[in-house]
Design a protein that fits this description.
Chain lengths: 203, 203
DNA sequence: GTCTATAAAAGGATAGAC
DNA sequence: GTCTATCCTTTTATAGAC
């Protein structure tokens, strides 16, 4: 089915905000890419800010289908699902010649005084991401120390992704991302070891 | 001594780029804050982009005096120096009501097609930061597993800081930063344990 | 719902006197 | 080195016909 006008605008803006950022994307850019006219855009959106709201809602609502499902294709182990998601980001980095930036993270740092709706949507996007990781950790709970803070650990996976993406992009070298992920893997290995050791002690 | 014009511009731009970002800071903003006129700025800088270069050079050249020295006041243990630096960021987050963003990280994600000079300066800033951490790790080498990759570990400290700052800012809650740092602390604790265990085995 | 034309403002940068 | 005035472009947004 041909996308309706509103959807076309959201998708074009999604890509442009990702490629150039919010401030560097003009309404004219969006119109030119969609082959629409000013009147159409302002019929659906009061202003550019509202297009951003639509884009952030689309990211939030698409996390399952557009991000997690592709990343977890054929991966069953919950811990490996976490690293499979990180591998997907690695692919995006490589495919963009290390110019990739997480669209949510980039917007979160670009917008210095976002209106409350925008800020809340950025936070919702992060929460959706970390909750997905948290579900993996819950499934793997038996392999982790029982006092492990799974929420904090899930947030730390996001921390690793965002920090790794930022450095890979800045240095234009995916090695920075790889090493960050490797550190996280080592952390999980140490946690699983600690859980084992403790289990043995109490056996 | 009264700062000369060039310095005044750099300092004003430094603060404005940090508060509002590069694209959202106009030349007029800089002029208004410095009480200077357009002619003065363009006498010292060919354009706005070049002011940015000056700002990034100032950050790079000031890392020791402006960042590390204050952070490490009275802290001798090299591992504790790492966490003292992170504590300084925590203070900045709290003092800004959780609106704080790392100026380098924010610019690194805001500027999507930076010219080579700007990109290289962003990278140099990150390198200066991670090298400082690496020096701490070198001093603490005996307490870490001997096969520990200290460069990767130093980069991971930056990863933690940047990811933690980004989430604290987005959620407007310093707890996100605290939990990221706590995870890192746990990682260091596990590393020191592993180093100990191995040392005992080989004794 | 979409089109064209255009208003209204902001932004980067320059010119030329002093 | 600094001042004022101003050019030119880009940008967001609106008006009103269709």
């Amino acid at each position: 089915m041909a996308a309706d006008t509103r959807t076309k605008i959201i998708h074009a803006a999604m890509e442009l905000f990702w490629l150039k950022g919010f401030n560097s994307t003009s309404v004219a850019d969006i119109l030119s890419r969609t082959q629409l006219n000013s009147g159409s855009l302002y019929h659906f959106f009061p202003g550019k800010q509202d297009v951003l709201v639509g884009v952030l809602e689309a990211y939030r609502d698409g996390i399952e289908e557009m991000l997690l499902k592709p990343a977890w294709e054929g991966v069953d182990d919950p811990i490996e699902q976490i690293f499979a998601l990180l591998s997907l980001y690695r692919r995006l980095i490589v495919e963009s010649d290390c110019a990739y930036g997480c669209p949510i993270g980039s917007l979160a740092l670009e917008l210095h005084e976002p209106d409350p709706k925008v800020r809340e949507l950025l936070a919702e996007n992060f929460r959706g991401w970390t909750r997905a990781i948290e579900r993996c950790l819950d499934q793997a709970a038996a392999r982790l120390p029982h006092d492990a803070d799974r929420q904090a650990l899930a947030e730390f996976v996001l921390t690793t992704m965002e920090g790794g993406v930022m450095q890979a992009r800045t240095h234009r070298d995916v090695g920075y991302f790889d090493r960050a992920v490797e550190m996280l893997r080592r952390h999980f290995a140490l946690l699983e070891q600690a859980a084992h050791a403790r289990a043995r002690t109490h056996a």
